[in-house]
């Protein structure tokens, strides 16, 4: 397609800040081009550990620097899942949560969060069995943009504690929160494995950096993940780990403010023509397709030069479609007009 309105890609439209590019180039020139320790650069790990202590109160957490949050998710699934285990996943969900556990022989137990996309705490409680290995929590959520309330997060923590189930918390979008802070389950639950990343807040999707952090009580899980990293990725890219140290001090408020304006633009532009829950975070909106027929609507949109993704990529249903609003405002306006014209 020539010059489409591309609402499909889940990555920021801004570039890595120049200061951070300089840090990566400096690290390369200084010779940080060999393997790092498997678990990550010592200084970066120390800084991550400080951040986790400051933000969620865990003293001396177990930390592993990973090749993106994708790397962290893969290592966590490999370390934790045995064939026959069950993984509880709120639906809609990010693609990896379904496919990797399925490859490892787990049964995915989907918990419907339509139509409001708030955290379905009661249904999650009902879905837990003796075979449940973990509950996946992704707030802000890809693809809905939902930010779960503190009250629901706390209620989930209580249920998980009662049933003694691990929570895998993918917090990759925690900086992209538009209407107030995003609560981490780590405040309320120690058996939570936290995954965060550098891809989204600093637009470093190609640098492949993320981290896993856990309370000391889960240090054995981080150790197993580290062992598997040694046998697979070996380590996250060394010079970029050096730049990530500076990234942790970089203020992304300006980017987040800009993305809040994009969120407002897309919500205001579509809400009268589509059934749409206002996204509170990330950079996605998940409207219902006219008549709940996503395949048909997506085909029509593509014919009209707008790339969107059908809901069944992220869900057991195919009634909605995902828009990534991480694009220029002119394209946003153009896409809104086309989609409204097709509704
Ligand atoms: N988790 C979620 C919810 C995502 O949306 C993404 C990226 N699309 C990832 C994890 C993986 O990101 P990365 O591997 O670049 O850190």
The class by helix and strand makeup works out as alpha/beta
Helix content: 25-40%
- Taking all Cα atoms into account, the compactness measure Rg is 20 Å
> Uncertain segments of ≥5 residues (pLDDT<50)?
none
Query: Order of SSEs, N→C?
Result: EHHEHEHEHEHEEEHHHEHEEEH
What is the residue-averaged pLDDT? 97
Main features:
343 residues, alpha/beta, seven-stranded mixed sheet, three-stranded antiparallel sheet, binds 4'-deoxy-4'-aminopyridoxal-5'-phosphate
Question: What order do the helices and strands come in, and which of them pair?
Answer:
Blueprint: E1 5-6, H1 18-29, H2 42-56, E2 62-66, H3 68-80, E3 86-91, H4 96-103, E4 107-112, H5 121-127, E5 132-138, H6 150-163, E6 166-170, E7 192-197, E8 210-214, H7 219-231, H8 238-247, H9 253-270, E9 284-285, H10 294-303, E10 306-307, E11 309-310, E12 321-324, H11 329-342
Parallel strand pairs: 1-10, 3-4, 3-5, 5-6, 6-7
Antiparallel strand pairs: 2-8, 7-8, 9-12, 11-12
Helix pairs in contact: 1-8, 3-4, 3-7, 9-11
This protein binds 4'-deoxy-4'-aminopyridoxal-5'-phosphate (PMP).
Written overview of the protein:
This protein is an alpha/beta fold and 343 residues long. Helices cover 39% and strands 15% of the residues. The protein contains eleven helices and twelve strands. It has helices at 18-29, 42-56, 68-80, 96-103, 121-127, 150-163, 219-231, 238-247, 253-270, 294-303, 329-342; strands spanning 5-6, 62-66, 86-91, 107-112, 132-138, 166-170, 192-197, 210-214, 284-285, 306-307, 309-310, 321-324. The strands form three sheets. The chain has a seven-stranded mixed beta sheet with strand order 2-8-7-6-5-3-4, sandwiched between helices. A three-stranded antiparallel beta sheet has the order 9-12-11, with helices on one face. Strands 1-10 form a two-stranded parallel ribbon. Strand 3 (86-91), helix 4 and strand 4 form a beta-alpha-beta unit. Helix 3 runs parallel beside helix 4 and helix 3 (68-80) packs across helix 7 (219-231). The chain is globular and about 55 Å long. The two termini are 22 Å apart. The site of 4'-deoxy-4'-aminopyridoxal-5'-phosphate (PMP) has 13 residues, from helix 3.
């Amino acid at each position: 397609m020539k010059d489409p309105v591309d609402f499909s890609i889940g990555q920021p439209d801004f570039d890595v800040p120049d200061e951070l590019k300089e840090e990566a180039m400096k690290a390369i020139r200084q010779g940080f081009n060999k393997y790092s320790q498997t678990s990550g650069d010592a200084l970066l790990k120390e800084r991550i550990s400080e951040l986790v202590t400051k933000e969620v109160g865990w003293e001396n957490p177990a930390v592993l620097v990973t090749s993106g949050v994708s790397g962290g998710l893969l290592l966590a699934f490999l370390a934790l899942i045995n064939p026959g285990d069950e993984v509880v996943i709120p639906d809609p969900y990010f693609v990896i949560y379904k496919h990797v556990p399925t490859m490892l022989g787990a049964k995915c137990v989907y918990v419907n969060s339509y139509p409001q996309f708030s955290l379905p705490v009661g249904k999650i409680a009902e879905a837990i069995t003796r075979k449940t290995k973990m509950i996946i929590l992704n707030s802000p959520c890809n693809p809905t943009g939902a930010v779960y309330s503190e009250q629901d997060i706390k209620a989930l923590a209580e249920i998980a504690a009662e049933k003694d189930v691990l929570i895998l918390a993918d917090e990759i979008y925690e900086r992209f929160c538009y209407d107030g802070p995003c609560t981490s389950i780590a405040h309320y639950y120690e058996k939570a494995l936290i995954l965060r990343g550098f891809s989204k807040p600093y637009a470093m999707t190609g640098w492949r950096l993320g981290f896993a952090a856990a309370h000391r009580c889960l240090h054995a899980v981080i150790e197993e993940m580290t062992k598997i990293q040694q046998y697979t990725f070996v380590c996250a890219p060394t010079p970029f780990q050096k730049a990530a140290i500076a990234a942790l001090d970089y203020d992304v408020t300006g980017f987040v403010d800009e993305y809040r304006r994009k969120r407002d633009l897309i919500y205001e532009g579509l809400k009268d023509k589509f059934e749409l829950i206002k996204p509170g975070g990330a950079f996605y909106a998940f409207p219902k397709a006219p008549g709940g027929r996503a395949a048909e609507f997506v085909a029509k949109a593509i014919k009209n030069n707008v790339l969107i993704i059908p809901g069944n990529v992220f869900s057991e249903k195919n009634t909605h479609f995902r828009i990534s609003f991480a694009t220029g405002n002119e394209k946003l306006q153009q896409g809104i007009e086309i989609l409204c014209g097709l509704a």
